[in-house]
Amino acid sequence: MGVNLFSFVDLYGKGLTTLDHVLGKGAEFAKSKGVSDADMLEWRLIADMHPLRFQARNVINFARSWPARAAGLEVLPDIGDDVDLAGLKAAIAETKTFLGGLTAAQFAGRDDTPHTQNLGGMEPTLPIGQWLSGFATTNFYFHLSMAYAILRHHGVQIGKRDLFAGGL
Description:
mainly alpha, 168 residues, 5 helices, Four Helix Bundle (Hemerythrin (Met), subunit A)
């Protein structure tokens, strides 16, 4: 199955804009309630789920790594577990700049390029188009949705329109 791999660059860029937007609204809300940014980033939906910081970090890391892999480029290093709100916002900006520098030509003809990825005990080899369109994008949106849900759960006044902060 051929996919337009380059189209995911814009999709991920819009998702990063959305993440930046909802994090900003979350920070404003937290501040109004006397909650520090650090404490806000530890908010969870339920006790055994990863916190907001983890969700945001994974959105950014998926946007950094998978388009690079699809284009056959070196992957930017993941941002660390201990990143603060300013660090998340800086990583969003850096990742958007990286994505903005990618070109359609870098993705041309790469849909069926085999890629092997370690998934913690499994190392499947799939065409990069399948990795990007299925695995990576599903995870990207899962973690973006969890960040949104955590913020809503804690009372941040965001709605469905906020998910389109990056545009349609």
